[in-house]
Amino acid sequence: MRKRVYLSENRVNFKFTQTPTDFIVDEVPLYEFKGKGKYLILHIKKVEFTTWDMVAVFAEFLDINAQKIGYAGLKDKHATTTQYISVDAKYEKSLKKFHNKNIKILSMIQHDRAIRMGDLKGNKFTVNLQEITNIEAGQIEKIARATAKNGLPNYFGYQRFGRDNDSIKQAKEMIAGDLHIADNKVKNFLISIYQSKFFNEWLRERVITSREENEKKFLLLDGDVYLAGESKLITPKIMPTKDFLSHKTIPTGLLCGRDVFRARDAARVIEVKYDDEFLQEKGHRRVALIYPEDIKCQYIKKETKLRMSFTLPKGSYATVFIEAIAGKNYTA
Hints:
CATH topology of the domain at 155-287: Pseudouridine synthase
Radius of gyration: 21 Å
Shape: globular
CATH class of the domain at 155-287: Alpha Beta
Number of strands: 14
CATH superfamily of the domain at 155-287: TruD, insertion domain
Strand content: 25-35%
């Protein structure tokens, strides 16, 4: 897979390793839980476990099919993460006896519906950047806040594709009919990886074009599809520059498939190169830029370490933000 490139060419040297002590993720739920209902919402803290590993542990403990356990998003393995899952409320008594050295139930509350994929506002991240001087800490904070203002290209991070891009290979084999996947969640995940690869390639070209033709600010094109508000997609006749600068409208890229809004005119000329119009699964649009929020930086001189926290919308990657600051790509 080709290198992810960013709007600004930053070069700040620091050491970053995705470990449970240096990479902490806290899921921000989409709604408040009601305290009554036929489902039980578990607030989980896990260390060195993928979401699927964690779900498998609970499925075995409760002796149920893993598909009976709801979750909103997939969390990193090499991290300390908190997230919410749902099960039938009848298991509340049994879960009070649950014990696992890598998984802790922080709280339980009842709710009237199960958690579904996508049921989260975003994630709060806390990361430690190592081997940093006081001056470099100031540079990092300056770059982070400028990125929050101008927008961060919303690439799928390296975690999406697995080691040596093995997930992409599986996805292509499955779509070609050479690999059968029985589990619907795994099948859907592989489809999304296939779509993600095309999206990253499209975004890379748009970023390079923006650097070359628009002074390193994201270049809007005739025919772009924008997200206006939380869910409305629009293709305005006049480019919404003012609304774009105020983050009211955000350009989107294609996750190829059926029944999806496609770009037009100049925007489509680029988009069509990264489209599979024969893919039968449903397509989507993904915002091309995100705007990190709640940025806080604490420099710990004694440890030459910068502790940085920030919040990103769902589906976005903290490692992409760190890459943009460092000016280099990370790998699995």
